[in-house]
Design a protein that fits this description.
The structure is a single chain. With 499 residues, this protein is an alpha+beta fold. It is built from 20 helices and nine strands. The protein has a four-stranded mixed β-sheet. The protein has a two-stranded antiparallel ribbon with strand order 1-5. Strands 3-4 form a two-stranded antiparallel ribbon. It is globular, with a radius of gyration of 22 Å. It is an enzyme of class 4 (lyase).
């Protein structure tokens, strides 16, 4: 890897185009390096993972809204909308499928200086691949690039420090991934990256306070916007430049300012793109930093026994966990039984309380209004708080995979005065966890979440297509068909501009 120093530049400076971060990312995207087998295997795993969570979310209102919008935009050759027959405009298919993947907060994650859900790259790349008849092997190459770029940006550039939403790294990664997949030249990829970043940078209010369904729409919007940016760049349109380093660019005006330097690692020429192997999926439908605490709660409940004897629970954890999903956020909504599902998903006290009581976690039942309003749950929930522990913060940012951790130490004080302590560094499903996810676990997640949604024969057909991904002449088979009668049970959506 080559670590690039990135900072703001004055317009009068001599700053060669080849030194722009967008140009360096374009060079990485255009590098014809082969995809290693382990990386290709993980790309297939994440396609299965995305299909699993999309199946579980297919009847939810935000997904139905996005699908209804996309259905108003038929396209030829076109791309596929998850669960639906026919072909539709590629950017709108990317939109609908992106919302389906993101709605339940149940797919993969990478955490470093910034947060990311790199599986959000897959829907727009698949949509473009279907529209243009791209081979499976080229889709794999594009996905490997998209993961590499988003993860490397997340390693080097912190967005949330300046209240910028993490999808600002997703726009450039989608543009780069499409560039690789279509074998575009570096100039076109450079222009597409700049446009994509410029148009997908927004504030973090989408993940603060009363969190709305826009949390699911935000990455889909980034994927759709980046797809359109590539289309314009292919037609010869240019972007603002230098987009990160310009005098009025992202770093100078939205991030650390003229005096701030960022260190962004990128693969050297000829170096394989392996970043996808550093990301991790979820066993539980909840914000990633709650994955290990859920497993910790399931383990602790046996030691605690009668939860009525709990006086207080303090979770010692990283700064990120404390201020984003813990009591360090200062969000009273995180203790409100009437809060949205998206808000409860970002409330570690709520999640820990329910996991303690139920000994499990479910993508629907654990968030049901009647579950959040249970009197004993509300009582336990309000006894739980978080504090930052410098050691957990250090481990959160550690570069050594064996040290890097997203867990917590729980201190449970009982009414008797006894204190029960336990901790868990990584989730059970993490590559270093008690039960790491491999192909059988991804398949199991798909079959469980698709049960009652996707016909068993269709499940088998889809899994066979993914197994043969690198040999597919086209990737139309990656769509999953669902009985229209089941889709008809989705919420009724009132008409909008698009019908």
């Amino acid at each position: 890897m080559i670590v690039h120093t990135v900072r703001a530049r004055r317009s009068a400076e001599d700053f060669p185009r080849g030194e722009h971060l967008a140009a360096k990312i374009a060079d990485v995207a255009a590098d014809p390096v082969a995809v290693e087998p382990e990386t290709a295997e993980m790309v297939a795993n994440r396609i299965i993972d995305n299909a699993a969570v999309s199946a579980a979310a297919v009847l939810r209102r935000p997904v139905a809204v996005a699908r209804r919008q996309a259905l108003s935009h038929p396209g030829r050759p076109g791309a596929r909308i998850f669960g639906v027959a026919g072909t539709y405009s590629a950017e709108w298919a990317a939109w609908a499928n992106g919302v389906a993947v993101r709605e339940l907060d149940f797919h993969d994650t990478f955490l470093a200086a910034e947060y990311s859900h790199p599986g959000d790259n897959i829907p727009p790349l698949v949509a473009v691949a279907q529209h243009l008849g791209v081979r499976g092997a080229d889709l794999v190459r594009g996905v490997a690039t998209a993961y590499e770029v988003q993860i490397d940006l997340a390693r080097g550039i912190c967005l949330h420090e300046h209240k910028i939403d993490h999808v600002a790294h997703l726009g450039p990664s989608v543009a780069a991934g499409i560039g690789t997949m279509l074998r575009l030249d570096t100039e076109t990829i450079y222009q597409a990256i700049g446009q994509a970043l410029h148009l997908t940078t927004s504030t973090r209010q989408s993940r603060k306070g009363s969190i709305s369904s826009w949390k699911a729409f935000a990455p889909a919007h980034a994927g759709k916007t980046a797809t359109e940016a590539v289309d314009r760049a292919m037609r010869g349109e240019r972007s603002p430049a230098p987009i990160w380093e310009g005098e009025d660019g992202v770093i100078a005006r939205l991030l650390g300012g003229p005096g701030r330097e960022y260190l962004v690692p990128l693969p050297a020429p000829g170096e394989p793109k392996r970043a996808i192997l550093d990301s991790y999926t979820k066993e539980h439908s909840a914000e990633y930093q709650s994955q290990a605490p859920i497993d910790l709660a399931r383990r602790l409940r046996q030691r605690i026994g009668d939860l009525d004897q709990v006086e207080a629970i303090v979770l010692h954890t990283s700064n990120h966990t404390h201020v984003v999903i813990g009591t360090g956020s200062g969000d009273p909504q995180k203790f409100d039984p009437d809060a949205s599902r998206e808000t409860l998903d970002h409330s570690l006290p709520y999640i820990f309380a329910v996991a303690l009581q139920d000994g499990t976690w479910h993508h629907e039942r654990s968030y049901a209004p009647e579950r959040a309003h249970r009197a004993d749950t509300v009582e336990l929930w309000r006894k739980i708080s978080t504090v930052e522990d410098p050691e957990w913060t250090r481990r959160y940012h550690a570069s050594d995979p064996a040290e890097k951790a997203f867990g917590a130490r729980a201190e449970v004080t009982l009414t008797s005065g006894e204190v029960i302590r336990d901790e868990l560094a990584v989730a059970d499903a993490h590559p270093l966890g008690a039960r790491p996810f491999r192909r059988p676990q991804y398949v199991q997640k798909f079959t469980e979440l698709a049960d009652g949604v996707v016909d068993p024969a269709e499940q088998r057909r889809f899994l066979s297509a993914v197994e043969a991904l690198a040999d597919l002449d086209t990737v139309d088979a990656l769509n999953v068909a669902i009985d229209p009668r089941l889709l008809g049970r989705a919420p009724t959506i009132p008409p909008g501009i698009f019908g």
